[in-house]
């Protein structure tokens, strides 16, 4: 499980641009709070190799899907608490629920700094959820 800015990173399959090269079907971890994205460590080596080959061949777009073994996907899925599979609202709600649970723990421990961090996270997640709901209703 990955963490970024205190939030649990979410698994997703996406497309990344590295310079002029676009790589499709990359197992990623992303932070729903600050939007930091990273290639999952289970496929990092294959990602770098694919990028190197693409640049060497002058390819503008490549697909990582054919170079990923099922074990890599299993490892990636084991370390994620949730996956965004076309439903960002579900992921945002899961993250809000986890933050609220952690808020109760922080209160019980009397950890005011952690509470402050969690309130900030909840504020950002709530703002994103409202923005998503607003665009969805249009």
Could you say what the CATH architecture of the largest domain is? Roll
Low-pLDDT residue spans: none
Portion in strands: 15-25%
Q: Helix share of residues?
A: 40-55%
List keywords for this structure.
138 residues, 2 domains, 51% helix
Task: Provide an overview of this structure.
Helix 3 (88-109) runs antiparallel to helix 4. Strands 3, 4, 5 and 6 form a 4-stranded mixed β-sheet that branches. Strands 1-2 form a two-stranded antiparallel sheet. The protein is of the alpha+beta class and 138 residues long. The two termini are 35 Å apart. The protein has 2 domains: 3-78, Ubiquitin-like (UB roll), CATH 3.10.20; 88-136. The longest helix has 25 residues, at 112-136. The protein is built from 4 helices and 6 strands; from the N terminus they run E-E-E-E-E-H-E-H-H-H. Helices cover 51% and strands 21% of the residues.
Give the topology:
Blueprint (H helix, E strand, L loop, with lengths): L2 E2 L2 E2 L1 E9 L2 E10 L6 E3 L4 H14 L3 E3 L6 H9 L9 H22 L2 H25 L2
Parallel strand pairs: 4-6
Antiparallel strand pairs: 1-2, 3-4, 4-5
């Amino acid at each position: 499980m990955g963490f970024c800015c205190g939030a649990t990173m979410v698994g997703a399959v996406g497309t990344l641009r590295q310079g002029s090269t676009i790589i499709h079907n990359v197992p990623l971890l992303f932070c729903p709070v600050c939007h930091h994205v990273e290639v999952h460590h289970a496929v990092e080596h294959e990602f770098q190799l694919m990028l190197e080959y693409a640049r060497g061949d002058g390819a503008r777009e490549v697909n990582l899907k054919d170079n990923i073994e099922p074990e890599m996907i299993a490892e990636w899925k084991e370390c994620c608490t949730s996956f965004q599979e076309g439903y960002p609202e579900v992921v945002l709600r899961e993250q809000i629920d986890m933050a609220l649970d952690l808020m109760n723990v922080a209160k019980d421990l009397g950890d005011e700094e952690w509470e402050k961090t969690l309130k900030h996270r909840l504020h950002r997640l709530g703002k994103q959820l409202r923005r998503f709901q607003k665009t969805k209703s249009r």
